[in-house]
Each structure stands twice: as structure tokens, then as C-alpha cells.
Amino acid sequence: QSVQRDLNKRRENKVKAELASKQDRVNQLRQEIAENERQLDMAQENFEKISRIVKKEFEAFDVKKCKDFKNTITEYLENMLKSQESLVTHWERFLPEIKQMQP
Fold first, then answer.
1. What is the mean pLDDT of residues 95-103?
2. Is the CB of residue 29 less than 8 Å from the CB of residue 10?
3. Is-contact 3 47, C-beta < 8 A?
4. pLDDT at residue 103 above 90?
5. How many other CB atoms are there within 10 angstroms of residue 60's CB atom?
6. Do 33 and 14 contact (CB within 8 A), yes or no?
7. Crossing angle for the helix pair 23-101 and 2-19, to the nearest 10 degrees
8. Phi, psi dihedral angles at 21 (to 5 degrees)
9. Burial call 72-103: b when 16+ CB within 10 Å, e when fewer
10. What is the DSSP string of 19-71?
11. What is the pLDDT of residue 102?
């Protein structure tokens, strides 16, 4: 933003210098404007590059987060299944005793 502000200010000063017929100042401002435009282009390229990197990182994070969630749920369900199977085994051992208790 500051580079853009500087560029706008230099352009305004260049117009004023042209109106005042100060050719040496106009030439100096042209060079400064060219440098500011180059800096602005570099800043824009850097911003776009960083934006792409951040977007890729977020996408990778989402994929990892989904895999972790799936693994956690799978592990939880497998543990629940083992627990239920164990419960069934205990009830099956206890069932003959219950049948004997009935009249």
C-alpha cells in the first residue's frame, strides 16, 4: 500500500513539474516512478506467490485433517466392536445359567 501511495504521489509531482517546465525534476521523477512501478509489480508477484502457498497449505491441512478424523473414527468403531464382541461372549457364557434358573 505504501508503494502504491508513493507511486501516486510521484505521478502527481511529475505532473506538477511538467506544468512548471522543470525538465530535470521530471526526468528524476520518471526514474523514481519506474522504480516504484517495479517495486509494485514485485510486491504483487510476492503477494500472489504467498497466496498460492497458503492455499496449498490449507488444502494439505484439510486432507490431513480428514484422514486423521477417518482414522480416529475407524479406531473408535473397531474398539467399540471389540467391546461388543466381548460382551456377547460373556452373555453367551452366562446364558446356560439363566436357562437353568427358569422353571
1. 81
2. yes
3. no
4. no
5. 10
6. yes
7. 160
8. 60, 40
9. eeeeeeeeeeeeeeeeeeeeeeeeeeeeeeee
10. HTT-HHHHHHHHHHHHHHHHHHHHHHHHHHHHHHHHHHHHHHHHHHHHHHHHH
11. 67
Which residue bears the cell 501516486? 8
Q: What is the mean pLDDT of residues 54-70?
A: 97
For the segment 6-39, what is each residue's pLDDT rounded down to a tens digit?
Answer: 889 999 999 999 999 899 989 999 999 999 999 9
Q: What is each CA distance from 29 to 5, 20, 78, 89, 94, in whole angstroms?
A: 14, 14, 72, 89, 96
State how far the Cα of 93 lies from the Cα of 9, in Å rounded to an integer. 89
**Tally of CB atoms within 10 A around 31:** 10
